[in-house]
């Protein structure tokens, strides 16, 4: 019984960490757009579309712990990761500029923010999505055992 | 502790952290631009900038504007009201940030009207007739020509003067200064180099009043 409790506890903590990461990413991106007034480009918007709902989903899943949250959150996080990865490649120049989808308005490849010389906004997004997906897979494996 | 409490507490902490970050950032910005104001006053006012108000005024109200921006036209009467309340204390400086489609042309007409001494009249006409030529989904700058005679302009002369390459330079310089000062929306106000803490009528009035107290 205690063993089972501990197991649930650990799984809860993993989702809890996922929620914090999603929440911090959401607030961070809102800070960039609303406070620092860096207009989000279209690729940023797609990543936001898949990051913002995770905050609510994880929250509901945590409140009365429901392990099926993993099943629902994973596809969203993976699609978001795809956009983040593509954006990161574009940003770091692996995909040539003329292949980028946003030709008008805000450029997706122009660097607006550079923390400590290497942390750009797409990299932050990629890191968040990667950690969330990794944690979700960990808890998925734990649960299927 | 119950898990629900942990979740709620964490959420509240994160939001508070966000609010604190906003506060720190805004303070930092205000300090930064206040500092800039002392160092490069010319970013705020250029030799060619059109000004309104007494030469002795100690309050420089810099307005980055776009003739096609609705909020700018809504603010215009308010700025004039402030200027009449604090007579001879405020000097209005017009800078351009023509972000709207077709707004470049308006700035050219406006600058050309200076040669006829009808700058402020023309600006008023542009703001008043904005609904006809600056609609967002279908801007039709050519429609302004119908309204220009109201400002008492010689239209033929305007058509010639507005192509002066000097005007092009003015727009470029103003856009560059707008970028330096981080003006991304219009109207962008600076009172003696100080930006508004947040946008609004009251905020503008408060900053103007605090500068008046500090300078008079």
Q: Can I get a quick summary?
A:
The complex is a heterodimer of chains A (145) and B (216). By secondary structure, chain A is mainly alpha-helical. Chain A has helices at residues 2-35, 42-63, 69-91, 121-144.
Q: Percent range for helical residues of chain A? A: over 70%
Low-confidence segments of chain A, given as residue ranges, are none
Tell me which protein chains meet in the greatest interface and how many residues each side has: A-B, 17 and 17 residues
Strand content of chain A: under 5%
Structure annotation, total helices of chain B: 9
Oligomer state equals heterodimer
* Shape estimate of chain A: elongated
Principal-axis shape of chain B equals globular
Distance between the termini of chain B: 58 Å
Features:
heterodimer; A: 145 residues; 71% helix; B: 216 residues; five-stranded mixed sheet; 56% helix
Structural account:
The complex is a heterodimer of chains A (145) and B (216). By secondary structure, chain A is mostly helical. Chain A has helices spanning 2-35, 42-63, 69-91, 121-144. Chain A starts with a helix and ends with a helix. Chain B is an alpha+beta fold. A 5-stranded mixed beta sheet of chain B has the order 1-3-2-4-5. In chain B, helix 2 (70-85) links the parallel strand 2 and strand 3. The longest helix of chain B is centred in the first third of the chain and has 37 residues, at 3-39. The N and C termini of chain B lie far apart (58 Å). The chains are: A mainly alpha (145), B alpha+beta (216). Chains A and B meet through helix 1 and helix 2 of A and helix 1 of B.
């Amino acid at each position: 019984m205690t063993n089972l409790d501990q197991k649930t506890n650990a799984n809860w903590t993993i989702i809890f960490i996922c929620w914090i990461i999603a929440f911090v990413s959401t607030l961070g991106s809102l800070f960039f757009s609303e406070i620092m007034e860096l207009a989000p480009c279209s690729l940023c918007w797609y990543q936001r579309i898949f990051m913002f709902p995770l905050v609510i989903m994880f929250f509901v899943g945590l409140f009365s712990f429901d392990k099926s949250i993993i099943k629902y959150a994973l596809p969203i996080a993976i699609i978001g990761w795809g956009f983040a990865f593509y954006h990161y490649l574009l940003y770091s120049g692996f995909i040539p500029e003329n292949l980028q989808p946003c030709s008008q308005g805000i450029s997706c490849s122009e660097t607006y923010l550079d923390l400590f010389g290497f942390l750009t906004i797409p990299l932050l997004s990629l890191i968040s999505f990667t950690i969330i997906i990794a944690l979700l897979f960990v808890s998925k494996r734990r649960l299927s055992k | 502790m119950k898990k629900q409490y942990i979740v709620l507490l964490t959420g509240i902490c994160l939001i508070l952290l966000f609010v604190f970050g906003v506060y720190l950032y805004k303070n930092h910005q205000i300090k930064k631009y206040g500092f800039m104001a002392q160092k490069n006053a010319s970013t705020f006012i250029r030799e060619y900038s059109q000004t309104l108000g007494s030469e002795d005024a100690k309050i420089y109200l810099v307005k980055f504007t776009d003739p096609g921006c609705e909020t700018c036209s809504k603010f215009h009467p308010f700025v004039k009201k402030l200027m009449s309340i604090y007579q001879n204390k405020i000097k209005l400086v017009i800078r351009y940030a023509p972000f709207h489609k077709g707004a470049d042309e308006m700035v050219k007409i406006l600058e050309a009207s200076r040669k006829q001494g009808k700058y402020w009249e023309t600006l008023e006409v542009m703001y008043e007739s904005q609904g006809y030529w600056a609609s967002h989904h279908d801007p039709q700058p050519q429609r302004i020509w119908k309204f220009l005679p109201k400002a008492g302009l010689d239209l033929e002369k305007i058509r010639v003067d507005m192509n002066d390459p000097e005007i092009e330079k003015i727009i470029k310089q103003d856009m560059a200064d707008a970028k330096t000062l981080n003006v991304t929306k219009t109207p962008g106000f600076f009172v003696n180099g100080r930006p508004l803490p947040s946008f609004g009528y009251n905020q503008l009035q408060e900053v103007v009043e605090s500068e008046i107290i500090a300078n008079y």
